Amino acid sequence: MIKKIAFMTGGGDCAGINAFIAAAVRQGIHQYQAEFVGIKKAFEGACSDRIEDHLLPLNLEAVNGLEVKPSTILESSRFNPFSKDNVEKGYPQKLLANLKKIGVDAVLATGGNDTIKSGMGLSKLNFPVISAPKSIDNDVSGTDTMLGYKTAITFGTAAVRSTVDSAKTHRRISIVEIMGREAGWLTLEIGIAGGADLILIPEKPVDLATLCDRIVALNQRQQYVNLVVAEGVRLKPDDPVLLRAKAENPVVKALVEEDLGIDSHGNPKLGGIGQILRRIIRTQLGLKKLEDVRATDLGFTLRGLAPVADDIVLGTRFGINAVDLLFAGVSGKMVGLQGTRIVTVDFADALVQKQVNWSENDLRSVGVVF
Ligand code: F6P
């Protein structure tokens, strides 16, 4: 019998998580007389020596007006209790003992791939867990969209439009780098809505000579070029244009060879492709000054945002349905949106990376280079 439910909000923060918490608390209290507590810093807080220092009690008063607030009130962490090392150190047992200590019977976890994996680990220990997908990357399967994605597109579009207008005014080449890990959704949709000329996404590898030819042609025609690039785009190591740029410019060589490391889930840390392309394009086009090509990194500006209406509505629907599932005795599932309906997805199905799958004709027509 479920009485007390804990929230954990792991992975990268984004908009809409607070709307999920607010709706779940309201639904749980009104429909099931449930109690709620937030565990700050997700699995890191839940596995800490003093879990009681990481708790935020959540009642109707605490969630009043919460749905419009940015990021997550529960902070976040990428700590992974189910990594090989942490399993050997006994963290899964510590997690269970801590949840028992604070009298929690079930967990609601918002997350991307990594938090869903941790939720799956917890549910395999027979502890009830329901997840709701959140990430600006929009890369979880079984759901059309995730919390935070629509807000990131809205804000990113405004930012790219501004760089587009500025590049027109100054007649120059502008590159905007956008997050998204190995998926190009965010860059693709912001690029289209923001009015970019050229779009680079990880799903469509590009050779640099083709890219530079396109830039030259556009530049001759309109005297400015706007390029958006996903952080997950990787250059082919033996691309002749890259080899030449590395040989001629030590900064390119250093940036390309820099090891950014991996996170606690084994994901490579990304970022910096915009600055690399800026230098390569300058060399290849024979431009005199580095400032003839400008690069902007939207970076974390797309993460700590207050939600747009779509994300408030999505968080609200996810919150209601996640609580209903727990009280119906369901565990080990993710809520998702398919079309206009809320659906229930197995964790294993959700974890298949959702990458851009538009037709080549559509991609080419909107400016994706490949
Ligand atoms: O998964 C969301 C995301 O913003 C990715 O787009 C990005 O690569 C990553 O998180 C950055 O992670 P961190 O906040 O750990 O630097």
TrEMBL record:
GO terms, molecular function: 6-phosphofructokinase activity; AMP binding; ATP binding; fructose-6-phosphate binding; identical protein binding; metal ion binding; monosaccharide binding
Pathway: Carbohydrate degradation; glycolysis; D-glyceraldehyde 3-phosphate and glycerone phosphate from D-glucose: step 3/4
Phosphofructokinase domain ranges (all copies): 4-326
GO BP annotations listed: canonical glycolysis; fructose 1,6-bisphosphate metabolic process; fructose 6-phosphate metabolic process
Superkingdom in the source lineage: Bacteria
Cofactor(s) annotated in UniProt: Mg(2+)
GO annotations of cellular component type: 6-phosphofructokinase complex
Residues spanning the signal sequence: none
Keywords from the named record: Cytoplasm, Glycolysis, Kinase, Magnesium, Metal-binding, Transferase
Similarity comment text for this entry: Belongs to the phosphofructokinase type A (PFKA) family.
NCBIfam families named in the record: PRK03202.1 (NF002872)
Name by which UniProt lists this protein: 6-phosphofructokinase 1
